[in-house]
Every structure is written in structure tokens, then in C-alpha cells.
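Section handout 9: paired folding examples.
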Amino acid sequence: MSPTNQNRKPLYIAICTQKGGAGKSVFTTLVASYLHYQRGYNVAVMDCDYPQWSIYKMRQREAEQIERNSFYQNKAEVFFSKLNKLTYPIVPSQPEAGLQQAKEFLSQEKHIYDVVLFDLPGTVNNESVVQTYFSMDYLFVPITTSRINMESTLPFMISVNEMITMNQGNIKLRSIHPFWNMVASKEKQELYDYYEKAILELGIPIMQTRIPKSVRYDREQSIEGNDYLFLSTIFPPDKPLLKGSNLDLLVEEIITIVNN
């Protein structure tokens, strides 16, 4: 994957979970913003997580705040004059229509996109959503050591990986990659070692990057608009908050995986 490569179709990527609150939409937003604003890729987001449409609604909320807030107006003016391109598009869609709507969107766009990130429903409850998962190029899964998280996520990853392994050419999905999220500094290393061994024995490659537990991952635009922000569809994470977040390491690892 190289920025604005005109000779290939965009990669379809989903950051997915089978448990609410595990970071699916947050990481979709952060990865999209980092790739688009920091790494020079052209990104589009398909928000298929109906009826929440949290990413699409975040963009609307941020745009309204910019209109009312001089701090964000100045920030946007300075940032986009240097960036020399627009914000990435966010297209709301019903889950079962996401693939077709993405195809239609891309066919109508003048811009060439490198990556389309899909925010998909956490629960695979119908055949069309299952088909959408297997129509991605890559799946990335935030996981934690909590038993509840593992009990919902492991069966999902096992099923997906088995389908990839058995693939006879009828699915597009290349691989699934879990990564540790909300890692507490005092959490026992033995627990991670235990789960990593189990996951690797299943033939699922676990990512090296670990995302620390941090309130910065929830820091959006404020009403006052006079502080650093991390989670945004219009701006990349501010450097003081990016440091130590490991988000940059996660994105670089994703780039490495999709380029192999």
C-alpha cells in the first residue's frame, strides 16, 4: 500500500469486535485520521454501524463546533492550509448495503482512495453482514485480557481464521490480526503470555503493538475548544497526546502487514 497508488483498488479494512465498548469505532476513527492526515494516504470511511453511526455523527458534531468556536476555526485554517487536501469522507450506510454503497461512492468520486475503512456492526447477525466481513482485505481486532472479552472474541477470530484457511478462492479476506488494547501497567505479563500462546497455536498472528489504557483515547473536541485533542475525524491527534499512546506504532504495524 502506497499513498495514492493509481494502479490498484483501495484496500478494504475493518477494525472489528464482537463486544460493545471494546474500541471498534474509536480505532476506526483514529486509524483513518492518522493515515489520512499524518501518513499521506487518501482514506474514506463507511460507517455501517447502524443505527449508532457514531463516526458519521462525530463528524457532524465536530463541524458544528468549528462553526461556533474560533479556536477550532483557527486550528482548521492553519492545519488544512498546510495539508493541502480535504477531510476524509464518511458515508453512513445500512450494514447490509455497505459494500454496494462503497462501490457506488468510489465510482462517483474524482479522488483515488488508498484505503476504505469500514465500521461494521459488532454482532454478526445476518448473512449479508457476514459477507461484508469476508469481503474485507484485512480485519484488525482490539482485544483485552478480560474473560468476557475473550469469550466473545476468540470464537469469532477462530471462525474467521478457519474460513480464511479453508478458502477456495471464494472469499477476499486475507488475514485477521488481533492487538492488545487497554493494557494496564500493572497487569500481569503471565496473563498476556497465556493468551498469546493460545492465540498463536490457533494460527492467528497477534500484533506486536500494545495500546495502553488511557483517558486520552476519549478526548474529543471540547465545548470550550482550548485544549489538546486526540479523537477526531477532522484533525490528527495532537503531538503531546500522541506521545506514549502507541497509536503511531499501531498504524505503522498495520501498514507493514498490508504491504507484505
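Moving on to protein 2 of 2.
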Amino acid sequence: METRLTELSSNYDHLEKKTIEEITADINHENISVPMAINKALPQINTLITEILSRLKLGGRLFYCGCGTGGRLATLDTIEVQNTFGTDGRQIQAIFPGGIKDLTQTRESREDDLDNGWQQLVERGATDDDIVVGFSASGTTPFVLSTLKWCRSHGIVTGCVVNNVDSVISHEVDFPVEVITGPEFVTGSTRMKGGTSQKLVLDMISTTLMIQLGRVEGNKMVNVKLMNAKLMDRAARIFMERNPHINDYDYVVSLLKKYGGIKQAEHYLKSLSD
């Protein structure tokens, strides 16, 4: 039976005897190792992002596939990308056991469902223009592994982000990413370092893609959705920084409300001067 580093016994013991201060210090010490593990995996991450980008530029889509912590984090990323970068939710999607409706449920038995992931992809019309990336700390999750196998059998390019070396999922995909985070503070609890690493990699993937696809200018989220007062205020300040000749905040807010965003309001002003 293969050795899973994520399942090895914790480097700490007698946790129930530790003080609050000791527990938080030890958890933080373990967390510090996560960025270093990601740093070692950057070449793999860069290769995966390059492949995803090439497919998105040609009209393909990115599907994340995961269960438990990884699946929930991946789903969260697809939602936040829409708000931050003004996308419509089609370009980056998530496949979660039972569907997104089960996201807040603790139905972890669905991790053993070998058909549901592929069924969801079929329902969304997945083709060989798309790419499917699986998230699995162990690198063995049946739901993820089976979905990726189905994809490969239908000529769909695949990738993965796992936390073990030479896992079965890594060997099944075209573009594996292995972030080796080692034993967890609580033995086997991959919601900790494993989950943290997956969140950081998801941030890297989606942010890099959006920058490369022109959804960021300078260092500003110029396509942010105006969904609440905080985002409206942010958009107004970005607009005024980009257009310093306009310093009437209320006027800018009215423009943004009328035209629906920074770029749209700027296009309107440009049309006036043409």
C-alpha cells in the first residue's frame, strides 16, 4: 500500500494537554511551511496555467473538480472570480459531488461516487476544447480520479493539484501539480495545510489567468462587479485615479450606476470626446 505523506502521524502529540498559546504557535509554525512547498511546485503550476490560458483564449472552459475542502475552495474561487474580475461564471466552473446544491452538506460519502462528476460535465457540454483540473489532498479521491479518467477517455485535457508524491491521480492527468505539505498538525486533517496550499494555488491560477486575459489593468480590478456599497466605492476611486480630470465623487458614482462599470463609464466619456 502506498505511503501518503498527508496521512502520516503528526509531528506533535498530546495535543489535548497543550495550552491555547502552544496550539496556535505550533499550527502557525506548520503553516509557514506551505508557501515553501508551493515554491517548489511553481514550475508545475506555471505549466498548468499556461495550458489553461491557451484553452481559455480559444473559447474553452476551465472546470475544477473536487470534494471536501478542495472542492469547496475551488467552488468559492469560481464565485469570487466573477465578482472581482466581472466574468459571467461560464469560463471557470466547479464540479462538486451531487452538484453545488450540496456544497454546505457533510455528505462526504459522495466522494466515492464514480459517475456523478462525469455526468455533470456531460450536462454542461464539456468538450475537448475544455480542461478539467482535479483537487485532492490524498491524490486518490475516487470522485476526482474517476472524473479525470472519464475526461481522458473522451480526449479532454486534465490537470490536478495534490499533496502527495506519485499519487494515482498525478499519474492519470496530463498536467500534475504536487504540493508536498507533509503530515498535518492533527493527523490526517487535510483541511489544514493541504487545504491552505490548495487555496493559495487556486488564487494563483485564477488571478494569473484573469491578468493574462486583460481583466486587470495596472494593478486594479477595473472589471469589478458593482454589487454593494464597498465595491461601488472602490470602483469610484479606481475610476477617479484613472481619470484625474474628474474629481466629483458623486458624479462618478452616478456614471458607474448608469453604465454598470468602470470600463463602460470610460467608454461613454471617450465617445463624448470623439
